[in-house]
Design goal:
Blueprint: H1 27-38, E1 46-47, E2 51-54, E3 57-64, H2 73-98, E4 102-105, H3 107-114, H4 123-127, E5 132-138, E6 141-148, E7 157-164, E8 171-172
Antiparallel strand pairs: 1-2, 2-3, 3-7, 4-5, 4-8, 5-6, 6-7
Length: 174
């Protein structure tokens, strides 16, 4: 060991199972999600720049790319991939906290909403923004995250939702 090289203490063996670190998720995204989970639901629907809340739900944007209408197609594809990576990292970190999520496809929910049939909040809002959500049940509330775009030139975004009651039906990832 030479004195001019700093020594970094190793807390685990590199080949140990615990040595695998979860992907980096921006701390603000986790703070927003944790704050939503602990927040009471409002009595009336309300919108803010970050999202929407109402009786029995909260929805917030955790990450957004910015509009894609002036962006080169290759850059737009990179932003879509970055959005997918943000969601994947968030799902990985949340799975370490709460276990594997169920995945709910929102296509049928979107169809019901488009036909004017009743859809419980916040699913009617989410269905127009993301194609599927990863969900975890926690007592009488559920947490979901998903990513998508409203249209090809619209921003890519990662959303979080907290709902009251039972999580939407989904399937477990094997």
């Amino acid at each position: 060991m030479t004195p001019d090289k700093p020594v970094t203490p190793r807390t685990t063996r590199p080949d140990a199972p615990d040595a695998r670190r979860p992907p980096e998720v921006p701390r603000p995204a986790l703070r927003v999600l944790d704050a939503l989970r602990s927040r009471a639901f409002p009595e009336r629907r309300e919108r803010t720049a970050a999202g929407e809340s109402g009786p029995g739900f909260h929805v917030a944007r955790l990450w957004e790319s910015g509009p894609l209408w002036d962006v080169d197609p290759a850059e737009a594809e990179e932003l879509r991939e970055e959005c997918a990576a943000e969601l994947a990292a968030l799902v990985t970190v949340l799975s370490l906290r709460w276990g594997e999520p169920a995945v709910a496809d929102l296509a049928e929910t979107l169809e019901r909403a488009a036909m004017g049939l009743p859809v419980r909040p916040p699913l009617e809002l989410l269905a127009g923004l993301v194609p599927r959500i990863h969900t975890w049940q926690d007592g009488d509330r559920w947490t979901a995250v998903g990513a998508g775009q409203c249209g090809p030139e619209q921003p890519c975004q990662v959303l979080a939702a907290i709902g009251e009651g039972t999580a939407p039906p989904g399937t477990r990832i094997p």
